[in-house]
Design a protein that fits this description.
Elements: H1 10-13, H2 18-32, H3 37-80
Length: 94
């Protein structure tokens, strides 16, 4: 008795690649294991990615706000002292 499948031609029409099967298996590992460590590791990884993205968005947002504040300060300084050019002068951190 040949155990090739339901139909003798299954082997010819249903060809799987080992890499595809391995990828699907790795996706299912958290659901197949009794131990919660793999699920928790994936949760932590996901949350770390969200935090990293959020941090980079906040940094970008505050950089824009800082640039806008510096420009306003330079404009106010220009009103007091016309020698200050708000377009060319920049703040330096010492």
């Amino acid at each position: 008795m040949d155990h090739t499948g339901l139909v003798k031609l299954d082997r010819n029409y249903f060809q799987t690649h080992v890499l595809e099967l391995a990828e699907e298996y790795l996706n299912a590992v958290p659901n197949l294991t009794i131990d919660d460590s793999e699920r928790l590791r994936l949760q932590i990884k996901s949350k770390d990615e969200i935090i990293k993205e959020s941090d980079s968005n906040l940094i970008e947002k505050y950089d824009k706000r800082l640039a806008k504040a510096e420009k306003l300060i330079l404009q106010l300084l220009h009103q007091k002292n016309p020698e200050v050019n708000p377009d060319k002068d920049r703040f330096t951190i010492e």
